[in-house]
Structures are given as structure tokens and as C-alpha cells.
Amino acid sequence: MTTTAPIPPITDSATVAVPIDEAFRVFTGEVDAWWPHQFHIGAAEVEEVVLEPRVDGRWYERGVDGTECDWGRVLVWDPPHRLVLTWQINGSWQFDPDPAHASEIEVRFTASGPAETVVDVEHGSFERLVGGGTINDAIRGGGGWVFLLDGFGAVVAGRS
Amino acid sequence: MTAYGDAGLGLLGDPTRRAIFELLARGPLSVQQLADRLPISRPAVSQHLRVLKDGGLVDSHAEGTRRIYRLDQAGVTALRAWLDGVWADALTGFQKVAETPPPEPRQETP
After folding, report:
1. Count of domains observed in chain A
2. Transmembrane ranges (chain A) (predicted)?
3. Which residues of B touch A112 (CB under 8 A)?
4. What is the CATH number of the domain that holds A98?
């Protein structure tokens, strides 16, 4: 039931032919443009992926039906070098608001030339996520795998 | 160590298996229900399910005469395997967007 073994992190990297400032700006400010919208958690198709550009900012998807589904929080905001996000979708594929149960995504930007940047992503601490012991109940509970967070559900107003 | 990597790339590298996995992430389904939602035959679905089951990403139980599949109870492993593919694709997307010259300023609609 309990997973004690550490789960290896996911590491990946991309080299982009743009200056470091631009790489950071696109990664954070244009996440909606590059995050593949088919990868999402909420029941509705994704309208927009949002990353709030500050420490403790939210990282979430907004569905075409206006519902929002949190993915995590910004822990470190250090442009243009480093960004740390949490991923708080647990083994039941639900958002877990407890920071002790958060996996972490560290993104490092390194200038490898005046117009070239290496972006390293390490997504780890998976063992902190609570496992899927209740996945069955959660999924069968009705409405499926929806964890539309009413508590967080203030729709970003004023945008059209 | 490599088991996780294999799980991600090997099991979910196949687009159909990933589609099955993502459908199951939304809720348990029978083989027939999966086949109804995918452009492949029921035997093909069964074959992919067997691979996913052997890899520990899904499990199944009988409900009456039907067999219902769902993501494995050890959900973190399944989640991690899913994210492995997500990050690979996401970074490819990031690279494309970052290296695309900025578009002309968009005209505001009046």
C-alpha cells in the first residue's frame, strides 16, 4: 500500500536557439502556446494553461467550460535562470493541496551562447505524492476523474 | 532503475496505448467501451491492455460478465510513466515556440 522506495526523477533537456531571457520568457509567459493541450487533468478540454509569474503563483489549466484545475504552485521564481514548480496531482490523479505531498519540477536555464540556451527539466520527489489507494473510489464517485476545484474556482475574471 | 524509464517510453510510447491509458485515467472502462472510443478493433484493444497490465500501469476486475480496466492502484507509478511522455512532448513544443520568430503585432479588434 505504502510506497517507500524512491521513485527516479524524470530528467529532460532542450537546447533552443534564443537568448536566455527569451527562453525564460517563453517557458513561463507562453506556456499556453507550447504545453500540448492534450495533456491535461480536468474533464473538459483545455482552453488555456496558465502559469502565474511569481512565487506562490498558481499553475493550472482552464477548461473550455471555464472550470479550473490546479496543477501546482511556483516555489522559486528566479528569471532568467531558474524556476521551481510543484506538481500536486497525486496517484489518484487529483490535486492535493498539501505542500508536503508535492512533487517538484526544477527548470534551469543556462546560456550556452549569445543566442542559445539549454533548458534542463528535472521532475522529481514523486515519492511524496500520495499513491492511488483510493483511485477506485475517486474515479467511481461520479463525474469521473474530475477534480474541479471549487475552492480555487474563481475564474480569472475580466479576460475575454 | 530502468524499469520506470521502460515503463514510460516503452509502454506509453505507442500512441494507441497512450490513448487507452488516458481514457482509463478518466475512469474505468470495459474492453468494449474502449474499442467504441478508439479506431481499433476489440482484439487490438485487448492486446494493448495486456501489455499495459504486464507493465503494471493498469489492472482489471470482473463485473458480472465484463472485465473492467482501470489505472493501477499504485497510481504514482502510472502517473510518472504518463508524465515521462508529457515532458518529452512538452519540451519539443517549447523548442518550437521559442524558436519561432515573434508574429507581427496582433491587430486589436475594435
Report:
1. 1
2. none
3. none
4. 3.30.530.20
- Inform me whether the C-beta atom of residue A14 falls under 8 Å from chain B C-beta atoms: yes
Class of B7-91 in CATH: mainly alpha
Are B97 and A33 inside 8 Å of each other by CB? yes
- Sequence spans of domains, chain B: 7-91
The per-residue pLDDT for range A6-61, each reduced to its tens digit, is: 778 889 999 999 999 999 999 999 999 999 888 877 778 889 999 999 999 999 99
Is the predicted pLDDT of residue B109 greater than 60, yes or no?
A: no
Residue A1 maps to a domain: no
- The C-alpha of A26 sits at a distance from chain B's nearest C-alpha, in angstroms, of 6
Residue A151 inside a domain? The answer is yes
Please check whether residue A58 is in contact with residue A43, taking contact to mean a CB–CB distance below 8 angstroms. no
Interface test with A, best of B23, B72, B91, B99 (most A CBs within 10 A): B91
Segments forming the whole domain that contains residue A37: 10-158
pTM score, whole prediction: 0.69
Q: Assign 3-class secondary structure to chain B.
A: CHHHHHHHHHHHCCHHHHHHHHHHHCCCEEHHHHHHHCCCCHHHHHHHHHHHHHCCCEEEEEECCEEEEEECCCHHHHHHHHHHHHHHHHHHHHHHHHHCCCCCCCCCCC
A127 in a structural domain: yes
